[in-house]
Design goal:
Helices cover 60% and strands 7% of the residues.
């Protein structure tokens, strides 16, 4: 088995996230089209639309993180995610990590600088969700 490094740089994390955002655009278009069709072509309430985007994004990450330990963007950059105990992620860990990553996005990635100051190279979302990113 290969020795896996735990330190994934903020630049690689951002690159994987950008890749995943392009995939999420497709998911959002599909979900939005279905919602529009289900509403007889009428525009949805903005809060309902935002909720649909929030839930579909969480579902995207929950599926990929619990089935294979990586999203497609993470696979391109050869990154995997594991629980601290070495097992696959639980739904609780996915939810905590997702909410923590929303916090990181809201503050334009500045919280990722914690990676440089922590001794083990972990971000806020890694610490809160008790997960690790590793190179494969």
């Amino acid at each position: 088995m290969k020795n896996k490094s735990h330190k994934v740089s903020p630049l690689k994390r951002i690159a994987a996230t950008i890749y995943d955002l392009f995939l999420l655009l497709g998911v959002w278009f599909l979900v939005g089209s279905i919602a529009l069709w289900a509403n007889d072509g009428e525009v949805l309430n903005p809060w309902l639309g935002l909720t649909i985007v929030f839930v579909s994004t969480w579902s995207f990450y929950a599926y990929f993180w619990t089935h294979g330990n990586k999203t497609l963007g993470m696979a391109v950059w050869k990154i995997e995610i594991y629980s601290e105990d070495g097992k696959n992620l639980t739904i609780k860990q996915v939810s905590i990590r997702y909410l923590a990553n929303l916090f990181v996005v809201f503050f334009a990635g500045i919280p990722l600088l914690q990676i440089y100051f922590s001794k083990d190279g972990r971000s806020i979302s890694d610490s809160l969700s008790k997960t690790n990113l590793k190179y494969i």
